[in-house]
């Protein structure tokens, strides 16, 4: 019988169907960024562990340089698929696909790099943060230090107030939307610059909950009816070039329960609270926005008195 965490995992990312993995393989930005970061982080002869291997593609990238890759996958269907795909690829024989729970597995030897791509926007749904924090504790107890290099190394999360169009051929439906980055969306109006609300550094101990309250200055008049959540994954830090290899998730736009009319110069107060790996609804239900201070009237609009 499944325990409570296993039941939740069925809904929150641990049992992603194969057709969704196809979408991830087709995401060129994701694939290219991870391949570049893995090529940089994995040195010749390294030992690598992947937690949540899916199709095995990232383990296959690592096997190009590594001597041994342990690829851990919880979903038995994906274990079979990964073994099949890896057998078709060069260096696939260096990857051992292991049917195990990433919350419990430890490799039989110390490893140099740990790859974990259980990443959803805002660290929701999937168990990236919780899995890595639990792994660091188990690994240190078994092998001591130092910890392996983690890929991604860090995650930067930000939020931005929007006016979002929710008219679909005359049908009004304020729903959650996922939008491509680097694309102009005609139905989206940015009402202020994004604000960073969390920086996750996987070399450090990280909290599993986020409670944030922040302020924005409205850059234009509009109707604040949605918040955009931005997640930038720092896959690898290239120290010799003072650069990073990044992967930006699609933007996630959540509608507000109560839209707010704003004017340019208004100070907006936004707050929310949720836990890493929780459902999107937990963030959406806590999301609140209001005008904290109204804009000061322009001098030209103030009547003159003799």
From TrEMBL:
The molecular function GO annotations come to: histone methyltransferase activity; protein-arginine N-methyltransferase activity
SUPFAM superfamilies (UniProt xref):
S-adenosyl-L-methionine-dependent methyltransferases (SSF53335)
Which residues are in the Methyltransferase domain? 48-133
- Choose any GO biological process term that the UniProt entry carries and state it: methylation
By its UniProt entry, which CDD domains does this protein fall under?
AdoMet_MTases (cd02440)
Alphabetized UniProt keyword annotations: Methyltransferase, Transferase
Q: Which Pfam families would you find in this protein's record?
A: Methyltransf_25
Does the keyword section mention Methyltransferase?
yes
Q: State whether keyword Transmembrane applies.
A: no
PANTHER family assigned? PROTEIN ARGININE N-METHYLTRANSFERASE, PROTEIN ARGININE N-METHYLTRANSFERASE 3
In Swiss-Prot or TrEMBL terms, this protein is called Putative RNA methylase
- Source organism of this protein record: Pseudoduganella violacea
């Amino acid at each position: 019988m499944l325990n409570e965490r296993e039941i939740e995992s069925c809904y929150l990312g641990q049992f992603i169907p194969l057709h969704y993995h196809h979408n991830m393989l087709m995401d060129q930005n994701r694939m290219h960024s991870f391949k570049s970061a893995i090529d940089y982080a994995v040195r010749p002869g390294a030992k690598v562990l992947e937690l949540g291997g899916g199709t095995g593609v990232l383990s296959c990238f690592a096997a190009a340089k590594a001597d041994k890759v342990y690829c851990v996958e919880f979903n038995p269907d994906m274990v079979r698929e990964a073994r099949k795909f890896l057998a078709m690829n060069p260096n696939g024989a260096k990857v051992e696909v292991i049917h195990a729970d990433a919350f419990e597995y430890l490799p039989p030897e110390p490893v140099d790099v740990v790859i974990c791509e259980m990443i959803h926007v805002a660290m929701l749904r999937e168990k990236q943060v919780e899995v890595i924090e639990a792994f660091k504790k188990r690994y240190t107890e078994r092998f001591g230090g130092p910890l392996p290099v983690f890929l991604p190394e860090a995650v930067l999360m930000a939020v931005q107030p929007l006016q979002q169009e929710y008219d679909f051929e005359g049908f009004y439906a304020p729903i959650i939307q996922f939008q491509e980055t680097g694309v102009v969306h005609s139905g989206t109006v940015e009402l202020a610059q994004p604000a960073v609300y969390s920086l996750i550094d996987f070399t450090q101990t990280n909290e599993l909950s986020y409670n944030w309250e922040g302020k924005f200055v409205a850059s234009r008049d509009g109707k604040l009816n949605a918040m955009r959540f931005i997640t930038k994954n720092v896959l690898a830090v290239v120290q010799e070039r003072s650069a990073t290899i990044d992967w930006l998730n699609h933007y996630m736009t959540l509608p507000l329960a109560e839209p707010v009319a704003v004017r340019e110069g208004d100070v907006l107060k936004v707050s929310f609270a949720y836990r890493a790996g929780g459902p999107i609804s937990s963030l959406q239900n806590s999301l609140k926005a209001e005008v904290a201070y109204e804009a000061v009237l322009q001098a030209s609009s103030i009547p003159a008195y003799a």
